[in-house]
Amino acid sequence: MKLFKAIHIKKKHILFTVAAIACVGVVTCLVPPAATKVSSIISAQNERKLPIYCVETDKPQVSISFDAAWGAEDTDRLLQILADNEVKATFFLCGYWVTDYPEEVKKIAEAGHDLGNHSSTHPHMNQLSSEQIAKELADCHKAVKDLTGIEMNLFRPPFGEYNNTVIETSFANSYYPIQWDIDSLDWKELGADHEINQVLNHKHLGNGSIVLFHNDAKYTPEVLDTIIKGLKEKGYEIVPISQLILKDNFEMDHEGRQRKIAKAS
User: Can you tell me the distance from the alpha carbon of 98 to that of 94, in angstroms, rounded to the nearest whole number?
Assistant: First the structure.
């Protein structure tokens, strides 16, 4: 299982780097996701559509997120650290993780953290049809709703992989696609000091940043308290992604930064 995890996470971040380099253009979203509406994405023909990597904001706020797709032995410790620091985070859950660890999901939800969709089976989403993507979203959504009653609206594609079909299908199914602009690199297991430095001194750290962690990374439970305190010392308020992102009247710049549409003068 550990070998499977390492191979897939490594590929995830290689593909993320390639995707980031390839991103160009601006995507304008005029209608937010809603249960009874289909989001409109207006863009030039053949333009690459982007998920939300970060948010343009004057508020000194950042978000911490965890991808949950494998083990769950660190859950209690992570939740305790978050509680001790009075921080709410966002947990992106795979459907099979929800099935395997229902009590952990309940604990996360009861603690008031965001629950996000990380697909049902952790596939390569950019290799799927829109119908298959929608099923991945729906199956995970149902698993979480049946267990917690929560209607999720945040989606992080597995491996960081996406294409226009993934983005369009996400919005069409009332989901905001979420990426990150700060990778803790906890998946590389480079040591506690490296992980702390990677986050607190990251060149992209700023208002509206989204930090990526994994729920079962080797050093994250050890360094999370230090990182949270470090972010607060830098003046940042840590909020869940649901409170960080814009829900309507936004556009995406070429770097995946979500920003409010300027009003016409």
Answer: 6
Contact (CB, 8 A) for 247 and 102: no
Q: Vertex 180, ends 124 and 122: CA angle to 5°?
A: 20
What gap in Å lies between CA 114 and CA 194, rounded to an integer? 27
Q: What H or E segment, with its residue span, contains residue 100?
A: helix 95-100
Residue 28 pLDDT exceeds 50 = no
Q: For 98, left (φ over 0), alpha (ψ -120 to 50), or beta?
A: alpha
pTM of the model: 0.84
Relative to beta strand 210-214, strand 182-183 is: parallel
Query: Quick one: CA dihedral 75, 76, 77, 79, positive or negative?
Result: positive
**Which of helix, strand or coil describes residue 54?**
strand
Radius of gyration of the chain measured on its C-alpha atoms = 17
pLDDT by residue (tens digit) across 95-137?
999 999 999 999 999 999 999 999 999 999 999 999 999 999 9
**Burial class, 203, CB count within 10 angstroms (exposed 0-12 / middle 13-18 / buried 19+):** exposed
**CA-to-CA distance for 76 and 82, rounded, in angstroms?**
10
The amino acid sitting at 152 is M
